Amino acid sequence: MEEEPMSAKNVKKNNRKIIGLTGNIASGKSTALKIISKLGYDTIDSDDIVKTLWKDRFFVTALSNAFNLDLFQAEQKNLFVKQVFDDENTRKKLEAIIHPFVFEAIEKYLTTHDEHIIIDMPLLFEVGYETKCDAVILVTIDEAIQLERLSKRGLNYEDALKRIKAQLPQQEKMAKTKYHVEGTLNKKLFKKQIKHMLEDIITDDKI
């Protein structure tokens, strides 16, 4: 009888692999997540969790009170987002409020799903979430290309650089995982490398 091919959807929880996906801003991480999803893997996008939080009136009210602002007003929210990248203390305070909500949502999902799962988290290493993963795939990018991509998103050089510097240096992240994929590869090669990395992680009994 022919052996059934490996599937991302038929693995029990006790041998499931939890795989982190991360990369600094404008690295191509979102594209990687789309590829992984199309390959049939279960995925969690932490950015989507945060977006959902911002639609929750209770959460926005609590955040407004914490920072003495009215974050329901678009103008104040935009100024607040800018301040997050201008001031490290504001950023850390915001992260300390948001991250527990994100972690709780992820844990809730994990308890109700059995398959291998890839968790997309921009600040994965910054918050130490790699300790909860069996392995991490890092999408890498040169800073010059980061700046170019961010300028196309409407950010000036100064604001783009602030957002880059708000994250751990890429070299530090590369030292924390052996799974790196360059975010400027052509789509076919990018997909091929990601696919092989996932298969290597899932079939490695030592992980």
Give the topology, please.
Layout: E1 18-23, H1 29-38, E2 42-45, H2 46-54, H3 57-67, H4 74-86, H5 88-111, E3 117-120, E4 135-140, H6 143-152, H7 157-165, H8 170-174, E5 179-182, H9 187-203
Parallel strand pairs: 1-3, 1-4, 2-3, 4-5
The residue fraction in helices comes out at: 40-55%
**Total number of strands:** 5
Task: Report the total helices.
Answer: 9
Spell the H/E element sequence. EHEHHHHEEHHHEH
- Widest β-sheet, arrangement of strands: 2-3-1-4-5
Strand content: 5-15%
Instruction: Report how far the terminal alpha carbons are from each other.
Output: 29 Å
Report the uncertain regions: 1-12
Can you characterise this structure?
The protein is of the alpha/beta class and about 210 residues long. It is built from nine helices and five strands; from the N terminus they run βαβααααββαααβα. The protein has helices at about 30-40, 45-55, 55-65, 75-85, 90-110, 145-150, 155-165, 170-175, 185-205; strands at about 20-25, 40-45, 115-120, 135-140, 180. It has a five-stranded parallel β-sheet. It is globular, with a radius of gyration of 18 Å.
Quick recap:
The chain has helices spanning 29-38, 46-54, 57-67, 74-86, 88-111, 143-152, 157-165, 170-174, 187-203, and strands spanning 18-23, 42-45, 117-120, 135-140, 179-182. It is 52% helix and 12% strand.
Which descriptors apply to this entry?
single chain; 207 residues; alpha/beta; 9 helices; 5 strands
